[in-house]
Amino acid sequence: MVLKIKSISKNFGGISALTDVSFSIEEGEIFGLIGPNGAGKTTMFNMITNLFPPSSGEITFAGEIITGIKPHLITEKGICRTFQNIRLFPQMSALENVMVGGHSRSKSGVFSSVIRTKAQRNEEARLRGSAIELLELVGLSDGIGTEAENLSYGQQRRLEIARALASKPKLLLLDEPAAGMNETETDDLFDLIKKVQARGITVLIIEHDMPLVMKLCDRILVLNFGKKLAEGTPKDIQNNKAVIEAYLGSEEDEQSA
Ligand SMILES: Nc1ncnc2c1ncn2[C@@H]1O[C@H](COP(=O)(O)OP(=O)(O)OP(=O)(O)O)[C@@H](O)[C@H]1O
């Protein structure tokens, strides 16, 4: 087991964003986190990366309790995420964006950043080489020197994944990676996430694109109003009455809004 979420609750003032949610993810799985808008999915990512601490509960990663430890230490331990809204450095090239992601793993300290030692030059060459390899993996070999803002939307999303991979995660958290993508871009994303899994990286994905979730994920957890509604294989989830009702309910709400 790579990640264990035990009885996590999170309150924001009077709002219970998560109530007593527990689940575990096995090493090498692609695990889906789904649920209607406001169900608590992003809050769960924020708990795992400790952007905010949970109100109660415990999170264990690779056998170690990580609840409450600093976000940068969580990255160092091997958890990395992308965000719902793209957070690239728009005027930096694709290559530079990925190299920045690799710096959390870089061994060179403050002193050696001032005085460029041979060791630091070697380190930079290593970061560069691994960034180029990651850009190839995500299908951006042609855009290495292009500023992030001049890449297409689908390319920017893939660049974000390359940047997250640069920190060499064991667990990659993807927050709605297919949002705003067309069908071809979504197909490319499917292939990319499968390639990430083939590298031995565990993936936890929040996604609203149900056909993608159903063909991509090994197991799925459904949240509704901050509570666990169901957990199982894509087939279990598709046939679960409570899940179908939760989704139909949210569609009706949207239509009447
Ligand atoms: N920082 C915050 N402060 C106050 N309330 C918050 C905060 N973050 C989330 N919430 C509330 O917690 C609940 C869960 O929100 P969350 O963003 O986790 O849902 P979600 O499932 O990711 O939704 P979506 O699919 O729309 O992104 C919502 O009621 C939201 O308004």
UniProtKB/TrEMBL annotation:
GO terms for molecular function: ATP binding. Residues 3-250 form the ABC transporter domain. InterPro entries: AAA+_ATPase (IPR003593), ABC_AA/LPS_Transport (IPR051120), ABC_transporter-like_ATP-bd (IPR003439), ABC_transporter-like_CS (IPR017871), BCA_ABC_TP_C (IPR032823), P-loop_NTPase (IPR027417). Transmembrane segments: none annotated. The keyword Cell membrane does not apply. The keyword Coiled coil does not apply. Keywords: ATP-binding, Nucleotide-binding, Transport. It holds the Pfam family BCA_ABC_TP_C. This is ABC transporter ATP-binding protein. It comes from Cytobacillus citreus. The lineage of its organism: Bacteria, Bacillati, Bacillota, Bacilli, Bacillales.
